């Protein structure tokens, strides 16, 4: 996720409800009656509740009517969010509102409209209001969206200073070694779930690079399960329901959080007492201070380390998996990426270095194009706390204001042949240089991603190593469709065929 892929949560909520209903159980009845009751409450609130005060003469954005109260457009959106938004763009223009699960959403599509969100102040379009109840139980108190944004900005600065070039130089060989070891079990040839493999590998590489060897060396099956339980906290249920409810997944999340925190705090204390001042993220955080001179507490360091890992986990593993399928689909492109390595690194392909990695321009463009067509974060979201004016409309407070990188990055108005995977489109500078927010896989403005450079290093090193080991093919020409039911849009049935590359 980026720090937060969570925003996707509500988007397929009804898809989930529908799935359960299809099961025809007692739970289905319960869900139907809950939905009915909520619809009544919702209609009542609409009828008698207070209305947001808008300036005189202000015009609301076009509203997409739905005859279904409360759930609104959740079904259509849950089934195919991109199609829903693209159709709405055609019909209503770049700014429109609709209801889903009792919440009002206003989308800002295209670069000009998106500028409102990216240039806004956090007091006006607020991130904590939409993300906090999901992130705090997972990361813990005192970090990210649990603190006022100026404090989080200070924390992001500390993280940024730990993600520096000296660190990246170390990371390349760590990631290359982890990747070679991981793929030893794949043997000469076969068919495997690429997304699953890359998810497992990326926990190992990210933990090693971002947490340090002490924590990486404790990463066994049990700890991997703790990460999975923590990650289970980013669910549709967690988005909709209060976090104190005694649901099994919430309990697992809370227990995992406590156990992870204990594990991290032990490693932090050990490092504090050690003579060894390894230059890594943990050391950076131990030595960082806020503007007022205070150091981070052990709990804050643990929370930031957990957050860093989870922020990069799904985002990088889905991007890497989609990249694999794009390369398997175009064997000539795959071969050219391999040949680029021989040209840049040398015919005998010595161990990778940071400087060589920077010169792998074709691979770089392939990642860039993958992030355009399959950005892991489909929607970036804020809560309107004050009336917001855009394109002649005023968005009332209480609306969830959204920008979709996926839609912006394939708008016909901004991109030529938008659905083609064409890494060479970046050869002529930035194809959308006039439109600042046409390409935003890492967001923009005050909430912009701090992990972009690390993500590129990680994905490039992993794929450079994989291309040295294997050739990849689609199985019977199957290119995965997009699974919209997960919060990050993962590839459906992501099985790939591989065979060891002959030198
Ligand atoms: C392909 C990989 C990644 C993608 C596509 C991605 C995408 C994003 C996006 C879109 C945002 C903006 C969210 C918003 O405005 O609401 C974001 C924020 C962030 N990301 Fe990433 N991310 C990636 C990897 C990482 C990694 C590896 C890390 C950590 C090492 C990281 C840490 C963060 C942090 C700390 C924020 C700041 C959130 C804020 O200020 O509200 N991300 N990311």
UniProtKB/TrEMBL annotation:
Name the PROSITE patterns for this protein.
CYTOCHROME_P450
What's its membrane topology?
Single-pass membrane protein
Superkingdom to which the source organism belongs: Eukaryota
Cross-referenced InterPro entries, in alphabetical order?
CYP450_sterol_14alpha_dmase (IPR050529), Cyt_P450 (IPR001128), Cyt_P450_CS (IPR017972), Cyt_P450_E_grp-IV (IPR002403), Cyt_P450_sf (IPR036396)
Q: Which stretches are transmembrane?
A: 25-44
Its EC top class is: oxidoreductase
Family affiliation: Belongs to the cytochrome P450 family.
**What is the role of the protein in this entry?**
Sterol 14alpha-demethylase that plays a critical role in the cholesterol biosynthesis pathway, being cholesterol the major sterol component in mammalian membranes as well as a precursor for bile acid and steroid hormone synthesis.
The family database entries (PANTHER family) matched by this protein are listed as:
24-HYDROXYCHOLESTEROL 7-ALPHA-HYDROXYLASE, CYTOCHROME P450 FAMILY 7
Protein name listed in UniProt = Lanosterol 14-alpha demethylase
Supply the source organism for this entry.
Answer: Echinops telfairi
Upper taxonomic classification of the species? Eukaryota, Metazoa, Chordata, Craniata, Vertebrata
What gene, per UniProt, encodes this protein?
LOC101643704
């Amino acid at each position: 996720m980026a720090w937060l892929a969570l925003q996707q949560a509500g988007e397929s909520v009804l898809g989930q409800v529908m799935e359960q209903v299809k099961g025809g159980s007692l739970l289905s009845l319960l869900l139907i009656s809950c939905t009915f009751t909520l619809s009544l409450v919702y209609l009542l609130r609409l009828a008698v509740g207070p209305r947001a005060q808008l300036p005189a003469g202000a015009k609301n954005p076009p509203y997409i009517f739905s005859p279904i109260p409360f759930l609104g457009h959740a079904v259509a959106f849950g089934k195919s969010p991109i199609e829903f938004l693209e159709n709405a763009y055609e019909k209503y223009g770049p700014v429109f509102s609709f209801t889903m699960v009792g919440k009002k959403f206003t989308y800002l599509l295209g670069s000009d409209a998106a500028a409102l969100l990216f240039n806004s102040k956090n007091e006006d379009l607020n991130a904590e209001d939409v993300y906090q109840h999901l992130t705090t139980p997972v990361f813990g108190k005192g970090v990210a969206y649990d603190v006022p944004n100026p404090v989080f900005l200070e924390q992001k600065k500390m993280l940024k200073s730990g993600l520096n070039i000296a660190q990246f130089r170390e990371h390349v060989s760590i990631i290359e070694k982890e990747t070679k070891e991981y793929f030893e079990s794949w043997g000469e040839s076969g068919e495997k779930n690429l997304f699953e493999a890359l998810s497992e590998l990326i926990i190992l590489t990210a933990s090693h690079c971002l947490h340090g060897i002490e924590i990486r060396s404790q990463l066994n099956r049990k700890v991997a399960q703790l990460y999975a339980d923590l990650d289970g906290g980013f669910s549709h249920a967690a988005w909709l329901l209060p976090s104190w409810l005694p649901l099994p997944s919430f309990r697992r999340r809370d227990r995992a959080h406590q156990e992870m925190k204990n594990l991290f705090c032990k490693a932090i204390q050990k490092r504090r007492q050690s003579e060894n001042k390894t230059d890594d993220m943990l050391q950076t955080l131990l030595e960082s201070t806020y503007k007022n001179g205070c150091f981070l507490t052990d709990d804050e360091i643990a929370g930031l380390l957990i957050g860093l890992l989870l922020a990069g986990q799904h985002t990088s593993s889905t991007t890497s998996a989609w990249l694999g399928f794009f390369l398997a689909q175009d064997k000539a492109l795959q071969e050219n990426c391999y040949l680029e390595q021989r040209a840049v690194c040398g015919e005998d392909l010595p161990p990778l270095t940071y400087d060589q990695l920077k010169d792998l321009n074709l691979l770089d463009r392939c990642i860039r194009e993958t992030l355009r067509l399959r950005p892991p974060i489909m929607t970036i979201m804020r809560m309107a706390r004050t009336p917001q004016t855009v394109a002649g409309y005023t968005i009332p407070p209480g609306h969830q204001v959204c920008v979709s990188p996926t839609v912006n990055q394939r708008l016909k108005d901004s991109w030529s042949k938008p659905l083609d995977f064409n890494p060479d489109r970046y050869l002529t500078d930035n194809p959308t240089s006039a439109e600042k927010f046409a390409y935003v896989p890492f967001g923009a403005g005050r909430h912009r991603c701090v992990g972009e450079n690390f993500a590129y290093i990680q994905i490039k090193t992993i794929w450079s190593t994989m291309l040295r080991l294997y050739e990849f093919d689609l199985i019977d020409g199957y290119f995965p469709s997009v699974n919209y039911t997960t919060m990050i849009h993962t590839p459906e049935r992501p099985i790939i065929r591989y065979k060891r590359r002959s030198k």
